[in-house]
Amino acid sequence: MFGFLRAFSRKPALRPPLHSAEWDGRALTLTFAADVGQVALDLDGVFFSAAHPDDERRVRFVFAFTPSGHLALDVLPRRGRDGTPLLARPWRLTLGRPGLAAAPAAAPLPLAPPGAVEHCVPFGLDVGAIEVAIVVPVYNAPALVERCLDAVLAHTSGRARLIVIDDASPDPAVAPLLARYAGREGIEVLRNEANHGFTATANRGIAAAGRADVVLLNADTEVGPHWLTGLRRAAYSADDVATATAVSDNAGAFSVPELEQANALPAGWPADAAARALWQQAGLAYPQLPTGNGFCLYIRRAVLDAVGALDEAAFPQGYGEENDFCQRAARHGLRHVIAGNVLVRHARSQSFGEERRRVLGEAGMAVLRARWPDYERDVGASLFSFERRVLDWRVRRAFAASAPPRPRLLWVGANAPDWPDAELWVLRAVGARNELVFDGRVVAVNLWHADTPETSYRALWDWLQVYAIERLVVPARTESAAEILCRLLAIPVAEVAVPFAPTARAALAAVEPALRTFAE
Questions:
Q1: How many CB atoms lie within 10 A of CB 282?
Q2: What CATH number is attached to the domain comprising 432?
Q3: What is the mean pLDDT of residues 224-230?
Q4: Residue 84 belongs to what H/E stretch?
Q5: pLDDT in tens, 36-73
Q6: What's the rounded Cα separation, in Å, for the pair 168 and 267?
Q7: Of 336, 369, 399, which residue sits at a domain end?
Q8: Which residues form the domain of 416?
Q9: β 408-412/423-430 pair status
Q10: Is 195 in the same domain as 261?
Q11: SS3 labels along 205-273
Q12: SS3 1
């Protein structure tokens, strides 16, 4: 037995030209005996990052936090991203603990929230009540417009209205298409008598939104489950956040998992399944960039008040207007985050075509360079941040799953019913502990203190966000603490017919007046 343990703990042999390796608990430093070119690092069997050795043939990979949510990391360096492994088998590293060991042959653990970067909405903020106007400028491409609007109507919750503006589309199919949506509750269809260009049309929508926050949404996009809830939460994760942008299969620097590429969704998965995979697995790291992207850009109304609208004179057809707006917001000390758990598909260049898009993009960049000479440098400095590499890696891992994910539901108490078409998570009380359980495994715990119940409410508040709960299921409509918190976070509540009541901690069903007042 002791011989086996010694064999497991022994540092594995290095393959030439790898000369030495050191893990200090935060950084992995590799030194080579010969030139190797680019060195890539696989994490849990999935590509994570790549770098070139310095003049002393050393390369260093630093971990600001654990990308998988687990302290143990299985790493394998390679010659280039898809090249020859530099080890016979992966190493097992533990964050915060120096030393290398051979990784066991067991399969990697499921992704867990990266605890060091949880950016939950502040406790009690009623994000579901924040009014949002979704502004969709339209120019031709009626089939994509229809797909966009139908997806918005299918997947939008909370206080939201839809403002669709036809910028004098010459395609005769656009007008009758939009007429089908006009007059529906919560939908306003406007039309420019002459073509004003994208930016002026977007500004008209911003003005029509009144005092609401605004989402600028391209008409060639397709949103998925929880898209607006995710953007709201990202935008209100901190007071200094100005905008939140979704990620996409095809949106330049906001493409995942490969930047500046058109990314295919997993074979056989519908778009909604891919969006749900990111909702559940991408985490709340919220990488930052000096700009958002107008294909799906959430803007807080207070920021519009402080900064003003888009500059339609300098960017009449778009292609740079949101970058300029975001730079103006940055002057006020505000930040722009990527909502990595919100996936929005993007057809791209359907209205103007690739060549006109290229010309407009070059013209817009020339204005940006003149106004904001540090813009490109700042983008380059943040584009490959650790948080962004973690996001892309988590998307690669999520998309490598053998089957698409199921909806994630929460049951409070005992006697949880069978739910074959969903992941059923359970919140239960065991003595003085509140436990969050999935598939028989306790994934999170907090202690109940009768004199300070708000502590447990705060824990549940965070769990609802961190573990991407999509719906609360209850046996009867009782205004419990769990229901109040779900309502504030725009999580739907579904009633199921069962002949028993949950027996979870009574305090989660008997809400203190203070909590009820606070929530309302």
A1: 29
A2: 3.30.420
A3: 96
A4: none
A5: 999 999 999 999 999 999 999 999 999 999 999 999 99
A6: 38
A7: 399
A8: 408-519
A9: parallel
A10: yes
A11: HHHHCCCCEEEEECCCEECCCCHHHHHHHHHCCCCCEEEEEEEECCCHHHECCCCCCCCCCCCCCCHHH
A12: coil
Note the pTM of the prediction, 2 decimals: 0.91
Tell me the average pLDDT across 365-382. 94
466 occurs within a structural domain: yes
Structure-model confidence comparison of residues 214 and 413, the more confident one: 214
Helix (H, G, I), strand (E, B) or coil at 83: coil
Q: List all residues 6 or more positions away from 224 whose beta carbon is below 8 Å from its beta carbon.
A: 151, 155, 271, 272, 274, 275, 276, 279, 343, 344, 345
**348 closest CA partner among 278, 263, 272:** 263
Angle between helices 386-399 and 271-281 (to 10 degrees): 130
- With vertex at residue 235, the alpha carbon angle to CA 232 and CA 236, rounded to the nearest 5 degrees, is 85
Residue 158's CB is within 10 A of a number of other CB atoms, namely 16
The token duo for 490 is 């725009």
What mean pLDDT comes out for the span 303-318? 94
Give how far Cα 75 sits from Cα of 155, 175, 372, 379, Å.
Answer: 38, 55, 40, 29
Q: How many CB atoms lie within 10 A of CB 244?
A: 27
pLDDT, average across residues 479-495: 86
Identify whether 391 is part of a domain.
Answer: yes
In this prediction, residue 367 carries a pLDDT of 94
The C-alpha atoms of residue 408 and residue 406 are separated, in whole angstroms, by: 6
